[in-house]
Amino acid sequence: MQEHVSDEFVKRAQKEGYRARAAYKLIEIDDKDKLIKPGMTVVDLGATPGSWCQVAVQRLKGHGKIIALDILDMQPIPGVQFIQGDFREESVLKQLEAAIENKPVDLVIADMAPNISGISTVDQANAAYLTELALDFAGQWLKPGGSFLVKVFIGSGFDEIVKVMRTQFDKVVTRKPKASRDRSSEVYLLGLNKKP
């Protein structure tokens, strides 16, 4: 708790009006890789509490569309269409596809993590499964040339995910933003320029 309260990114988020310190992860990655541009359609998987949506709204500058999805409720954000539901359920996926009007999207961002049980093999498998679902969605719905940013945890299944992403994107890079805690095994995989 003390680490959280004294965290520079937590303090900045409170001061700058972001819902979570995670905003700075996306800001740093987007500053480097220029993922979010006005006019885009962005899908945010695992969006709650909404700090990535806040960043995306700012960077779209009023031009574009953001569809956010999470199993947990999210307080509304102007410019964001939110769907509450479990991404693993077919009916929720259908709602998401309807929200994008069954048209390809420019960017899929996924900062999802499963509920942590404390049993590392179970948590690792659950995290990998969410990543695979997000990758399946991106594979199906990203435009050629689109990008996919996903949180992953280094461990079993990581190399497999990288391998699959390399078949779908021209370039796959790893990002560890400063706002990611050093002791965390989380990194972000970025697939750039989806192959046709």
Shape: globular
Q: What is the helix tally?
A: 7
Cα-atom Rg, whole angstroms? Answer: 16 Å
CATH topology: Rossmann fold
Give the biggest sheet. Answer: 7 strands, mixed
Mean pLDDT level: 94
Q: Would you count the extended β strands for me?
A: 7
Computed structural class: alpha/beta
Q: In angstroms, what separates the terminal alpha carbons?
A: 46 Å
Oligomer: single chain
Order of helices and strands: HHHEHEEHEHEHEE
Approximate helicity band: 25-40%
CATH architecture: 3-Layer(aba) Sandwich
Please indicate the count of domains: 1
The unreliable regions are none
CATH class: Alpha Beta
CATH superfamily: Vaccinia Virus protein VP39
Description:
With 196 residues, the protein is of the alpha/beta class. It has a single domain, classed as Vaccinia Virus protein VP39 (Rossmann fold), CATH 3.40.50.150. 39% of the residues lie in helices and 27% in strands. The chain has 7 helices and 7 strands; from the N terminus they run αααβαββαβαβαββ. It has helices at residues 2-5, 8-16, 23-33, 51-60, 90-99, 120-141, 158-168; strands at 40-45, 64-70, 80-84, 105-110, 142-153, 169-175, 186-194. Strands 3-2-1-4-5-7-6 form a 7-stranded mixed sheet, sandwiched between helices. Strand 1, helix 4 (51-60) and strand 2 form a beta-alpha-beta unit. Helix 6 packs parallel to helix 7 (158-168). The radius of gyration is 16 Å and the shape is globular. The mean pLDDT is 94.
